[in-house]
Design goal:
By secondary structure, the protein is mainly alpha-helical. The longest helix is centred in the first third of the chain and has 22 residues. The two termini are 26 Å apart. 63% of the residues lie in helices and 0% in strands. It is globular and about 35 Å long. It is built from 7 helices and no strands.
Length: 114
Amino acid sequence: MNETDEAALVAAARRVADRHRAETGIDALRLRPSAVPSFVTALLPYAEILGVGDDGTRDSIFAEVPPAFLNLVRDAIGHAPGLFDWYRQAETTKARNTPEVAAIGWMLRGLNLG
């Protein structure tokens, strides 16, 4: 996949998320890359594009975004070594209440990975 294709997929996913937020009034979290380990940082833009918040997955978004975009997200998750260990550890501590941990967790659940 070239950069143009990837940009088109990101734009399509963003449109779906924006439409969902406009319809529901639910905003994406403002995530802080500095609040998570470097190997997870690359996933935060995907969470924001998908409009994932700490109140659950946006099932309509996961159903509507191009499958190729979800494959990009899965690939990014696959290249985040230690993600699942970090997430499991965070869920057993006070860190589970942070927007970053919640967003990654809901994104994993939305992709049926967590």
